[in-house]
């Protein structure tokens, strides 16, 4: 027997010993099931959810174990809108592996810790933004509100305990508004909140990706608050039940390897990854690519110290909005299996841990013409405007144009940005508040519409 195959069989034997069955029993028809909870429309979890599922990476990894003498495996995928129901199912021991945002991860660890079979561990990150731009607050297109402080006394839709809710709490606190008594937060699922915003039942919606970008793209909302103003990292990650990991360590290891497969695919082919995710989730590809294209979400599995520090600081905000059982975060976070996954691929985990660059290469400023399978990068916003002007002059339809906010660095839609002209330079901002901050320091800067900017750059 070849050495690699013999080692694989030994590994499978050791794993099966934990479950009390032998390779012979497994071969006789025993099937190991793994239930994965994911959020198909939450773009920065796609490497542990939508993209991972669509590409079949986990099933392929498990099939390798089967072919090397291990048991058969069955993967059950369960799709949810937020992390809360995934946690509820993990408490009930009905989901084995799940992915969710930073606030839901804390709630997951807190609520599962009481049970020996439900207790979870935080094993890997899916995607993060170093400043917090993954969560945003939007208002109706005709809303007169210009800052998050204007929400005082108003109704706001959010999924309580979600990453989007966490951003709202922190933003209101910084603006001097009591996040509990100063606004009325309606606890709603994202799609319900979107309908409430459109019908005028709420003044604003605070949610995680991809909902803010989707609603703005559909002209159903405009951006009021960019989470990057907090300058606090926000992220999503993967948890697994410790009991399941003890019974089937090879499954959890295969999942981490599959997540790395999906991550590397997205780095290399972000536009194709966006197409796959859009097809599987029902989201527009332009919206998916806003987040997983260059300059968007940093897809990186490592458990970076900066993220864990922010994670610990999130606890006080959770306590401010309701009951939260203290959680030993250092005990909850476990990078040992992820380190082993890196080692198995011949990769240096500590080197990856120290890296802070976004591996999806590119400036984040690019033009996507209708009918094109590739995008055109632009060196800066003014160059992008020239490219848009040239495309219009040639009769080409622009499918999407992306820019990077001049202050916060958030990737956004060029035609939805707030634009200023400062001399011959055109500057885009995600929000009116950000543009006003620039104007306060640059008195010559004047507001222009997107179309005015496109026309102006031609002259």
UniProtKB/TrEMBL annotation:
Name the Pfam families for this protein. Answer: NMT1
Extent of the signal sequence:
1-27
The reply to whether Protease figures as a keyword in the UniProt entry is no
Keyword Cytoplasm belongs to the record: no
Do you know which InterPro entries this protein is assigned to?
SsuA/THI5 (IPR015168)
Q: Which UniProt keywords apply?
A: Signal
Residue span, SsuA/THI5-like domain: 134-273
SUPFAM superfamilies (UniProt xref): Periplasmic binding protein-like II (SSF53850)
In terms of superkingdom, the source organism counts as Bacteria
Name the UniProt record assigns to this protein: Nitrate ABC transporter, periplasmic protein
Which organism does this record belong to? Nocardia jinanensis
């Amino acid at each position: 027997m070849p050495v690699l195959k013999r080692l694989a069989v030994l590994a499978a034997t050791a794993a099966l010993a934990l479950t009390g069955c032998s390779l012979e029993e497994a071969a006789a028809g025993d099937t190991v099931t793994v239930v994965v909870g994911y959020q198909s429309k939450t773009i920065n979890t796609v490497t542990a959810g939508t993209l991972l599922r669509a590409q079949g990476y986990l099933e392929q990894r498990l099939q390798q174990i089967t072919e090397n003498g291990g048991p058969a495996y069955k993967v059950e995928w369960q799709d949810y809108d937020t992390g809360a129901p995934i946690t509820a199912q993990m408490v009930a021991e009905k989901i084995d592996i799940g992915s969710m945002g930073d606030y839901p991860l804390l709630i997951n660890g807190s609520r599962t810790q009481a049970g020996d079979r439900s207790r979870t561990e935080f094993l890997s990150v899916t995607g993060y933004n170093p400043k917090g731009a993954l969560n945003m607050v939007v208002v109706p297109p005709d809303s007169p509100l210009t800052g998050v402080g204007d929400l005082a006394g108003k109704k706001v839709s959010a999924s309580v305990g979600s990453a989007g809710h966490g951003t709202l709490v922190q933003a209101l606190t910084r603006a001097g508004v009591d996040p509990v008594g100063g606004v009325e937060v309606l606890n709603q699922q994202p799609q319900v909140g979107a309908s409430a915003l459109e019908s005028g039942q709420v003044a604003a919606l605070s949610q995680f990706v991809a909902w803010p970008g989707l609603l703005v793209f559909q002209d159903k909302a405009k951006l009021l608050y960019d989470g990057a103003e907090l300058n606090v990292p926000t992220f999503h990650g993967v948890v697994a039940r410790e009991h399941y990991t003890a019974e089937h360590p090879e499954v959890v290891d295969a999942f981490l390897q599959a997540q790395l497969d999906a991550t590397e695919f997205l780095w290399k082919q972000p536009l194709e990854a966006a197409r796959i995710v859009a097809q599987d989730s029902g989201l527009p590809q332009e919206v998916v690519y806003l987040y997983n294209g260059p300059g968007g979400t940093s897809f990186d599995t490592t458990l970076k110290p900066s993220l864990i520090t922010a994670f610990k600081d999130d606890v006080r905000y959770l306590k401010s909005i309701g009951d939260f059982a203290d959680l030993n975060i250092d005990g909850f976070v476990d990078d040992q299996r992820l380190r082993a996954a890196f080692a198995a691929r011949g990769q240096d985990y500590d080197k990856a841990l120290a890296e802070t660059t976004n591996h999806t290469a590119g400036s984040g400023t690019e033009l996507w013409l209708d009918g094109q399978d590739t995008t055109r990068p632009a060196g800066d916003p003014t160059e992008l405007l020239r490219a848009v002007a040239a495309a219009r002059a040639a009769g080409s339809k622009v499918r999407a144009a992306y820019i990077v906010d001049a202050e916060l660095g958030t990737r956004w839609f060029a035609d939805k940005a707030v634009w200023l002209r400062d001399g011959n330079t055109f500057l885009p901002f995600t929000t009116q508040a950000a543009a006003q901050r620039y104007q306060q320091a640059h008195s010559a800067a004047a507001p222009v519409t997107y179309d005015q900017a496109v026309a102006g750059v031609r002259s």
